[in-house]
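Hi Y.,

Following your request, here is the sequence exactly as I used it, all 267 residues.
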Amino acid sequence: MVPKTVVTPANRITLAGVQFDRLTEDEVVARVLEELADGDGGQIVTPNVDILHRVVRDADSRAHVRASSLVVADGKPLIWASRLAGDPLPARVAGADLIWSLSAAMAGAGRSVHLLGGEPGTATRAAEVLRDRLPALKIAGCLSPSLGFDTREQEYAAVCDEVVGAAPDLVFVGFGFPKQERVIARLRRRLPQTWFLGCGAAIGFVAGVHSRAPGWMQRSGLEWVHRLALEPRRLMRRYLVDDAPFAARLLVAAAREGLRRRSEGSR
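Below is the corresponding structure, written out as tokens. Let me know if you'd prefer a different format.
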């Protein structure tokens, strides 16, 4: 079951009960810079089909998305759904792209970033790559906690203390949804002037630990096929049994909404 797709006024559109901001990647970056200049922190969440499906089913996941400052669509099916509904989102905005564009913006503004997540050594390697590409970028810190750190309170607290002590302007948190959002929620209380991006595997992409799908697959909405080929055991059920039917229902619901709107407009 997919909640009704609703076209909302101003700068948001609702898909399956989640409000998305009508922003391009450049506009997201500009908003973050403006907010930082005003001394305000915030959080960016980038739902794809898998995250949206989880949000529809789980109240805690919905709360994390609603607590975010900016919600942008990381997934071609969501862009297609908005178009079918008759009020299109301007573009896909992926966390794997934002980690680069936001880092470039932070370098230009003389601000700092912190990388938190990935397998051991991944955040350090990603920081080295970013520093090579963007020499002016200030790296406040990089940390890849051990697996399950968030289940051990002493270790969890130590990780948060290290990030808070670094006082970064922007933190890239890559643990996958919704674990990364839970970590962000804990950190935001102590770093109200910092921005956070839950970026999934993006730190690993930057580090070269994981390979991202070719550009043509990203543009055609087939990035999930690339990931499925790399991790079939872990992702087959999620993508083929859970997410694919949900995406189909989402598109059908959006198409019905578009027909309804056109019918009302022709009266």
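The first helix runs from residue 25 to 37.

Thanks again,
Q.
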